[in-house]
Amino acid sequence: MCGIVGYVGPKTAGTFLIDGLRRLEYRGYDSSGIAVLGDDGVALHRAVGRIDNLVSVIGSQSPSGSLGIGHTRWATHGPPTEGNAHPHRGGNGEVVLVHNGVIENFQPLREELVAKGYAFQSSTDSEVIAHLIADALATSPRDSEDAEQRYVDAVQQTANRLRGTYGLAVLFADCPEMLIAARFGSPLVVGVGRGEHFIASDASPLAGHTDRIVYLADHQLAILRPGSLTVLHRDNGKISPDVQMLETETEQVSLDGYDHYMLKEIYEQPDAIRNAMRGRLDDQNATALFGGLNLTPQQLRSVDRIILTGCGTSWHSALVGEYLLEEFARIPVEVEYASELRYRNPPIEPGTLVFGITQSGETADTLAALVETKRKGHRTLAINNVVGSSIAQAADGGVYLHAGPEIGVASTKAYTSQCCTLAMLALYFGRLRHLSYEAGKSYIENLRRLPAAVEQALSCDALVRGIAEKYQSVNTFLYLGRQYNFPTALEGALKLKEISYIHAEGYPAAEMKHGPIALVDQHTPSVFIVPRGTTYEKVLANMEEVKARGGPIIAIACQADPAIDSLADDVVHVPAIPEFLQPIVSVIPLQLLAYHVALMRGCDVDKPRNLAKSVTVE
Ligand code: M6R
Which residue range(s) make up the domain with 406? Predict the structure, then answer.
């Protein structure tokens, strides 16, 4: 996790650094810091907690200097203290750096450096990198003709000794016009401006500064000066940087009058779904269109097994995808936690296609799972929101969600866009196989009904706020659903626990009898997702079982039904849509419930404790 930024050019570096860190705060917010090189040397400011705290620490004394680096931290090694906040200094302060990633062999490296007399100021793994670079510089002659090469060699030698992952931005106290960036396993981009260059963990800090961007790849190192950019590869030496055009617009990441990004993103879902479907429904052939799969219809027709992998909410959408692809494409599907798949060695047949599902495209476990399956020779595709992300680049092809930036840590619009994209993939694969033209036409008609259905579902907001008021103080929630809405139950529980810190469990409704029913009492509400469908009557029976034990019931239902009204204490009606699309509609009240409960409990909805938006460490 963590976000890093860097600037070298004619302007005051601090302005870009602070603004950039604010845009990267979603990557971690345990502490932050900046270092700016000015006439009086390196000015270093650090603070525990949010960027606002750093701004207070800096006060009106904004450091002058036009070269600097910054960091926002999600703690891995060492607690979130000021001493552990980045930037870190190496040697006697001649090297200053920020790091995103994890150094797995930091302990032996630290022991070696301590034995050499280096004094550590923090308990982080990152500080070893700063001292290693200082150590490499100490052993290289100062009078070398090419001074730049000396710094580059020191960073490269250090990189060669690191095991783990890193995105680095390094400044040198005696080098007022040069920054070095290096990457392995953690994302890093370079912004190319006029007479200035920028470093960032992703493209968002660059919006408004430059639209030209270079995505650094693993083992690449960039030397940034105001008027020049040199990119080197560890094995291939100097390479020509691939400058791409940045598409992010600054307006897209504003709050637009909403109190929180999460609420804004919940309300953006009708449009996000429209965008996911835009240009992808082919009425003439009653199928879906995907430009980026990079596989021929023949190759896709020969797929006889699909693995869907991801983490957290993306893993939940994979579960929805499993139901969809098996029902409509008749292809066997397995859903794997990426964190498990990456270390497992399951037998994978040649006809298997592996999809990595991810909002950010930076989740370390999903990336590693895809890279490992690709290494074994399997075709890998990404279902991904962030254009140009690490996973988009690592996969053989894929589908972008086009949901727009998702800033709130709790994933909402990415989830419904992923489910919608998986529904289109099920149609596409189905139509390549046995699904009839007529069935394809009716499938498309139903997909087209989705944005309006989600819009209508959002009108339950006030009702859900009332339910949140009633239950805001309970300790445990159960979420129960079946078939297509079993993942909805998991997703509702995850939303609530991650932002309100209430214990919540999602289960297939019938599984309740095998253990969780022991939790039911008058203080433990059960949320039943009970739309009309194949298991409707069965779920009603499960509601009876909870009712018989005095448990309060909140029902997410499709239409008025006296049976539900008599069983449930609270009923939220959402529009009815065919069962296979219902999860996209039924999840709306659950997102709103989590939002309102968290707000009433005084929690930080967009930046819940201990979490970060992108989990770029394993
Ligand atoms: O960016 P990704 O979709 O790969 O992220 C995966 C999970 O970290 C993410 O979905 C997480 O579970 C969310 N905070 C859930 O709301």
Answer: 255-435
Contact 305, 322 (CB under 8 A): no
Quote the strand ranges of 541-595, DSSP E: 553-557, 570-573
Give the CA dihedral 287, 288, 290, 295, nearest 10 degrees.
-40
Comparing CA positions, the residue from 408, 407, 448 lying closest to residue 424 is 448
Task: Report pLDDT for 274.
Answer: 97
**What pLDDT is attached to residue 250?**
46
* pLDDT < 50: residue spans in the chain: 250-251
Partnered with residue 104 across adjacent β-strands are: none
Q: Which of 147, 143, 220, 214 shows the shortest CA–CA distance to 181?
A: 220
Ligand 1 atom 16: residue of nearest CA:
410
The confidence score (pLDDT) of residue 542 equals 95
Residue 616 lies in a domain: no
User: Distance from the CA of 90 to the center of ligand 1, in angstroms?
Assistant: 34
The two tokens of residue 305 are: 């097994």
Domain CATH code at residue 99: 3.60.20.10
Instruction: Out of 182, 213, 248, pick the residue that ends a domain.
Output: 248
- Let me know the angle formed at the C-alpha of 489 by 365 and 502, rounded to the nearest 5 degrees: 80
Residue 144 domain-assigned (yes or no): yes
Mutate to test the pocket of ligand 1, among 308, 314, 342, 370 (most ligand atoms within 8 A of CB): 314
Contact 210, 183 (CB under 8 A): no
Which of 266, 311, 391 is the pocket-test mutation for ligand 1 (most atoms within 8 Å of CB)? Answer: 311
Tell whether ligand 1 has an atom less than 6 A from the beta carbon of residue 410.
yes
Q: Outline where DSSP puts E strands in 510-615.
A: 526-530, 553-557, 570-573
Annotated catalytic, 374? no
* Amino acid in position 328: F
Number of domains, the chain: 3
Residue 538: active-site member: no
User: Same domain, yes or no, for 268 and 230?
Assistant: no
Query: Do both 212 and 279 map to the same domain?
Result: no
Same-domain status, 193 and 262: no
**Is any atom of ligand 1 closer than 6 Å to the C-beta of 33?**
no
Q: CATH number of the domain that 562 lies in?
A: 3.40.50.10490
Report the distance separating Cα 175 and Cα 42, nearest Å: 11
* 409 Cβ inside 6 Å of ligand 1: yes
Same domain for 324 and 308: yes
Does 429 lie in the same domain as 521?
no
- Residue 449 falls within a domain, yes or no? no
pTM of structure:
0.85
Note whether 418 and 330 are same-domain residues: yes
Residue with CA closest to ligand 1 atom 8: 312
Cis ω before 87 (30° cut-off from 0): yes
CA 614 / ligand 1 centre spacing (Å): 7
Report how far ligand 1's centroid is from the alpha carbon of 196 (Å): 34
pLDDT, tens digit, for every residue of 543-578?
999 999 999 999 999 977 888 999 999 999 999 999
210 lies in the same domain as 262: no
Q: Looking at the structure, do residues 244 and 296 belong to the same domain, yes or no?
A: no
Residues near 304 by beta carbon (within 8 Å), at least 6 away in sequence: 331, 332, 349, 351, 352
> What pLDDT does 393 receive?
87
The answer to whether residue 440 is domain-embedded is no
Q: Which of 231, 248, 265 is the last residue of a domain?
A: 248
Which residue intervals of 169-260 are DSSP H helices? none
Give, as one character, the DSSP assignment of residue 119. Answer: P
* Cβ proximity of 381 and 356 under 8 Å: yes
Query: Which atom belonging to ligand 1 lies closest to the Cα atom of 614?
Result: 1
